[in-house]
Design brief:
The chain is α+β, with helices and mostly antiparallel strands and 118 residues long. It is built from five helices and six strands, in the order H-E-E-H-H-E-E-H-E-H-E. A hairpin with a 5-residue loop joins strand 3 and strand 4. The longest helix is centred in the first third of the chain and has 9 residues. It starts with a helix and ends in a 15-residue tail after the last strand.
């Protein structure tokens, strides 16, 4: 969106053969929300801001590795947004013309690095 506003021709290549709206939740941290604000795309995402008392990381067994005071962090840098991947994709694609996104299998996407000789 930003490149288009600066006058560049833009095409978004989707690695999959089709645009799918499947997946899980995505956490957009406050700096990501500010970047989306600059592009005018954060309004839909900001509706999914989450507020928590504690946050942290856990190992594969669920044992805490890091626990932090989320209230203090949110006061200092802002609250992250937890949004469904499909909703995030819709919000990001909504202002774009349909011709911007071309689903192509990975083998047909252009690469600046030529294949190795056989």
């Amino acid at each position: 969106m930003g490149l288009h506003r600066l006058g560049h021709e833009v095409t978004l290549f989707e690695r999959g053969a089709e645009l799918r709206e499947a997946g899980t939740g995505i956490v957009v941290m406050p700096n990501g929300l500010r970047a989306l604000d600059a592009l005018g795309l954060a309004e839909d995402v900001r509706g999914h801001v989450m507020h928590a008392a504690r946050a942290g990381l856990r190992d594969w067994r669920g044992r805490p590795l890091l626990v932090t005071d989320a209230v203090q962090t949110q006061q200092e840098i802002g609250a992250p947004a937890l949004i469904d991947r499909a909703e995030l994709h819709r919000a990001l694609r909504a202002p774009c013309p349909p011709t911007w996104c071309e689903p192509r299998p990975p083998s047909s996407v252009w690469s600046p690095i030529p294949p190795a000789s056989a």
